């Protein structure tokens, strides 16, 4: 049973060249005010358009524009954030490349300088960057539930890496979309017969909160199966992990046109 590496290219956004009528920015209309963000224990300075920073992050919007702002200052220090994480965030803010891309060999392209997706999600949770959280969940979905572009369906036996489970459940609320996705993928894909001894040993150190969440998820799934609402070979639905959805949809998902086109269907009962 495979655990797919959640370390990938820096995440990227698409906010600087679109027209104003779709709620996104263009440089021609962007304020010239620049914020200076000092990052890490080495205190390296980064410069970013204040308007873009506040647009993406509710935390920085309150810091620089809220009632507690300090005399119009555009300076702040983040000693708990490392340079690769902040660099990936700035790449997300400014660039327009896809969140994940593929090499000519049809595999995910890896950048060793990029932070883990889970670490970047923790940053996005702490500094309240909902658009980045959404992109990361989509990326994890693709890495763990889908293979390369020639794949026509979900992968049956990929599991979240133990390291990422520990990071997520040690730093995020259990109800966060990423934690729920890790639990649901584990419940769907775990097969003890396909797990190696090293992986089993690593899973002994997984936080107990994860095991409890898995137990509750299995109980819920069993009830749905008894009622006939879902089958044993169910699929997950990406809509369940989008922020802002009031109630989860059922575990139904059909794939049309390969992994780049996902058509999710809402169930009748959930």
Automatic annotation (TrEMBL):
This is BTB domain-containing protein. InterPro entries: BTB/POZ_dom, SKP1/BTB/POZ_sf. SMART domains: BTB (SM00225). It comes from the Eukaryota. Residues 33-102 form the BTB domain. The lineage of its organism: Eukaryota, Fungi, Dikarya, Ascomycota, Pezizomycotina.
